Amino acid sequence: MTIATERKVQAPGASEKSAPAAATDFPAIFGELQDELASRGSRRVTHLRQSAIRRFAELGFPTTRHEEWRFTNVKPLVRTPLTVAAPAEGSAPTVTAAELERYFYPDCTQLVLVNGRLAPELSHLEDLPAGAVVSSLADAWQSHPALIDQHLGRYASFDEHAFVALNTAFHRDGVFLYVPKGAVIDKPINLIVVGAAQAEPVAFFPRLLFVAEESSQVTIFEQHVSVGDGAYFTCPVLEVVAGANSTIDHYKLQRESTDAFHMSTLQVKQHRDTNFSSHCLSWGGSIVRNDVNATLDGENCTSILNGLYMVEGKQLVDNHMRVEHNQPNCYSHELYKGILEGEARAVFTGRIYVEEDAQKTDAVQANRNLLLSNKALCNSQPQLEIFADDVRCTHGSTVGQLDELAIFYLRSRGIGEEAARSLLTYAFAADIVTRVKLPQVRRDLEEFLFRRLPKGEIVRQAV
Amino acid sequence: MSLLDIKNLHAGVEGAEILKGVDLTVNAGEVHAIMGPNGSGKSTLAQVLAGREDYEVTEGTITYKGEDLLELDPEIRAREGIFLAFQYPVEIPGVSNVYFLKAALNAIRKHRDQEEIDAMDFLTYVKGKMEIVKMDEELLHRPVNEGFSGGEKKRNEVFHMAVLDPVLAVLDETDSGLDIDALKIVAAGVNSLRSEDRGFVVITHYQRLLEYIVPDVVHVMIDGKIVQTGGKELALELEEKGYGGHEREARDAAAASASPA
Questions:
Q1: Closest to A461 (Cβ–Cβ): which among B53, B75, B102?
Q2: Residue A138's domain spans which residues?
Q3: pTM score of the predicted model
């Protein structure tokens, strides 16, 4: 064990008297941009946009008085004046391949979104099976309107979520992925969502829709990266539809600059006999919120939701999960691990909801945190809501420090103290690293750890 | 010059004194056994030798190869040739046993101004050492001690020792909890490493180990002090009579020193 002292997480009260005045008036901006936005997508989408902005006007930005945002204060974002308008013709930010090269993976279909818009010159498709669609959402509105209308906005609800509402109202582009019945996309999709900082902070709302039909299979990497320094706000929403008996593996690497605000939602709907896995790796950003919601709507579904976050300085990362077991004989497994340095903060909320009919549910949830500094803080709240009576559900949460005895053990073999601490920190992260099956992602994660950890070269040698 | 010279060593943790004046001299080529009941301070002595910072040395000196050992950090002691085989080896998930050893060996070699060993040479070197403790190759590639049985962990400690090639090896109850077959393997491993240049301090609770690792000197430790020193026959004597007499003496001595003269 690398965790010496394990204790139940205390939830210190967070207080905030009233909602701060927002520096960006999104409803007013929506009024100004209405015509432009209405040109994107069907009439249904336009209506959806209108409902979403109305709902946002009612909800406002969340404050720490909201139960779901108790420990995540988004005030720094709310107080940042943001540009939402599309850049004027010819002044759109350009990003070169050289700037993104380290995010390119060989042998992948590659899609690059720059500030929410597809950059065709940086994107290419590889060996897609017949009937498969990988395109910008903007193109798909023209080419596959019926499919979009059938799915877009049907899963990620904005009723109680201000950021999903903003994305639904303001999204201009994104990615549409469609895998037809029985098709297997061999080569992973590498989706690079770039935030290119501008003179003034910009806001953008990538909208991602992945539909996998019956017995199909696909693997997706979703990387969030920054080019240049400076604040921006990215607010992606991803809806995933897993058709019966499909297999979808999703990896998200959130590796943006520490000036970025990142509020994301992943909503997956699983039909019967599906295998869905998500690995959410977060080490960038200023304030990062990852909502991951899985709805298990058929029997015999498997949902694996893993995560690793490593934050330092004044970064805040909030992983917020909800797994809904609506049908019997499903399995869900969540393991989120976090490493906190400096004055960083981490929040974990995991709710497993088991419907009355969802007998024989097998749900496991764990959140483990390693604090490397006295000033780092973690709030972890696993929650179970169970209405069925024949289930196996467990949850657990720990916060601890490196085990001094283990450090001594390593030092007694000749390893220096700093390297010993780094080795044990790596060891803490290792069970997430080993769960990342794809070599490209795994190598990137390992590289990150070797670079971040002091004496990382010794760690590299020793693992 | 002796390899290790401990004089009047007092040490404790959080104000409680555990070692109350230990004297011990170990020469290169010698195997010293330290026996004693639970709580007598044997493991504390081992940990103090390896540099565990939880223990505070309040009095006395430890001289190793003529240098003040207490000045050195644990990793420097290791690089200078001190090895402690832990009573309870620590599990380190995600860190492979073999790569970890390579990193450790290279840290030691670097300290000694030797060239770092490359992966191929290291593997050849390690394979030879594995035979010493009849280690399963599978354990080489597993994370350090993770999921190892008690016996495998102890064997792994002796394997680490063989690879790191120490000058002074301290074995802290390496025999405890081993069945006879495992004990024989561990003892044979230690015996194969006996040499003129190397000293051993073998801490044990049971005389049985000393049938297989025959010591040059046996010490009895009671209540933080070495109360008797003798040849290997002392171990047999203790086996027959137990520590009872010594413990009584220690109690009487403590009572005498506590009461006003």
A1: B102
A2: 26-297
A3: 0.91
